[in-house]
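User: Show me an example of a complex going from sequences to structure tokens.

Assistant: Sure. Here are the input components:
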Amino acid sequence: MTRTGSPLGRRVLLGVLGVVVLAAIWELYKALGPATGVVIGDLTVLPRTSDLAMPHVWDMVARLFRPVRSAGDDEMMWQAVLQASFFSLGVAAVGWFVGVVVGMVLAIFMQRFRTAESALLPWIVLSQTVPLIAIAPLVKRWGSQIEIGSFSWENWMSVALIASYLAFFPVSIGALRGLGSPDVNHVELMRTYSVGWWATLVRLRLPASVPYLLPALRLAAANAVIGTVVAEVSIGLRGGIGRMIVEYAAAAGGDPAKPWAPIFGAVLVGLLAAGVVALIGLALARYRRGETPA
Amino acid sequence: MSTESSAQNQPIASTGPAAVSVTGVGKVFASRKGADVTALEAVDLTIAPGEFVSLIGPSGCGKSTLLRLIADLDTPTSGSIEVFGKTARQARIDQAYGIAFQQAGLLPWRTVRANIELPLELHKVGKAERGARSSELLSLVGLADFADKYPDQLSGGMQQRVAIARSLAESPGLLLMDEPFGALDEMTRERMQTELVRICAETGAAVVFVTHSIPEAVFLSNRVVVMSPRPGRIRDVIAVDLGRAEGRGEGLREADSFFEAVVAVRESLHGEAAGAPAARGVDQR
């Protein structure tokens, strides 16, 4: 923790300021930009400034406080978005957790056996090149065949599984580096204590891996959220942010501010996920002493 | 090296097995290109319980390698090593020695106290007993007020004192030290040497101490083992008779006997160039 210099209040203020600046740039371009957008050759590099393409920021915010369907007496938009956000966050959390466990187990296994590292690492890297769209239907199909006793595979589990598929990667790579980070000095000290591999892992390698693990956990959280939102769309899981984005996009013609509501929801999910990891980092502050700014 | 002459210089001539007994030890490091490097050749050395022995010599003379062999961090290619009558491996498993390296090697996430307690914790010593032992060691190395600090809050000299306390945690009969003061400034270094003499006198442990510094070796040791490189072997063993450890204070550094011993070690180190090589293994005084 190297940037504890600025007090919390100041950091919050700067965060808010960032959002305000972003909104100001949006409105500024909307006011001053050409109505047809900026086009180079046949390529549109900046969008058209019509209300349809770029609704006013205040319209987007105001839309949150009107019912979901403009005419009806539905629940408020923000309520629906919040509900969907927490649904997605829950699925992403399950995916994150599974991904972290799998990633850690893989890293420990690779650390323990050199041959396992040579055998597994290329496949782990390769696994991330498979497009999500390709595996989503497969996972859904395989899952639907699982039925053990009263347990049956549900669609949300497929989504969580895909989220974990994206989440495990940074964890396994980060943890592998972290587990190998202790000095020869420390490893030999453990040897002079004639303690086994397990004690060395628990007392030395795991604590030493924390500074490498935390950025990996943050990446994993971001990946899990993205994985969840995209998998919700490709598997067709109802109730989450991903599905909501697709549904509301269809309404953009008559209600241009509407599709922005679930996008705000997705941002919220990402922020919450990052916040949880930051809390984990605080809890593990003891293991981050002497951490050098990256 | 005659055991008779070295026995005269030991504080207490105790019965039982030697603290360290190195017999005909050689170490060859196989390199990838087939050119093997002989790090040690035909090394014989016996260290009595409670004796302080320094290993000194130019880089590449195998002094650290010898220490690592005694610690069973490496295995000799030939010959045998016994520590308190046991094989080096068994001695390591039985925790017969404590070790300190040039880097203090403290775990940054543990407090000073928790670092000292690490070996005890790993060997399932009860909490109350651990606490009592670490308090004892903290006052022995003069860091009682720093028990709850973290290593990054300490100076280099303090960190090294914690490392020494840690190496003493299980009351070993033998301390292995590989240039523990090598990274310290001269002032701190001399203070640490005085401290170490006192600590050794209080604990009665035998010490094998690797160093580059002639005054350091002379000040600390009962005997100084001078080694020569390529291949690493013992050139000379020089007994230093500076009196019982308890009597060694700062004044000793300016005493004539101290200078004489320093000269003897220096001449031995540069011996062959001077054209008067000393007979190997015979004490020079």
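The lines above are the inputs; the final block is the predicted structure for all two components together. Chain B touches chain A through 22 residues (CB under 8 Å).
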